[in-house]
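forwarding from the other thread:

> can someone predict this with zinc ion?

sure thing
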Amino acid sequence: MLALKASTGLGLGIVADGRILRGHRSAAGEIGHVKVEAAKGLICRCGDTGCPEAVAAGWAPTVERLRSDGQQVDHVRDPVAQAVRGDGQARSIVRESGRRVGEAMAATVTVLNPRAIIVGGDMAGAFDTFAAGLRDTLFSSTTALAGRDLQVLPSTYGERAGLVGCVRLALESVLSPHAVDAELARHHG
Ligand SMILES: [Zn+2]
């Protein structure tokens, strides 16, 4: 599965056979910085141009467009909350963000053929709206076979997802029986 975090930034966790794929330099999953046509020429906060973050993340137009309209927007949570309340402009911004993320993820989905995409982060607060945009561009850009049975689902843990993930990682690595035994042996051995 692919665990998408769509919030101030964009990130992707790749889980295959129950394990997180981190990549050679633990740099896998940087979906916010694969280059897309829609962001061509736009400067990203990573210093490069052409990144989906520059068009789809919470720091980018999502917040800036509302701000330029004179609206009180401090964080991506604000337009998300407005979208949930039914505000047309906020809904269109969240849906557009989903569309851009769908474009960026299409190649990854085509290559990896995941069973599910889990949407977390602040954008998931308006999951239906965000996912509608994401499905729209994703399914039209990936192969029919990779798109078949592919589910787009909201994160189960909501705002706690990052914390739950950290705890899980700690339990499975530094606090695993094997790691604790090794640590004890190092001190007493
Ligand atoms: Zn970037």
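The first helix runs from residue 53 to 56. thats all i got for now
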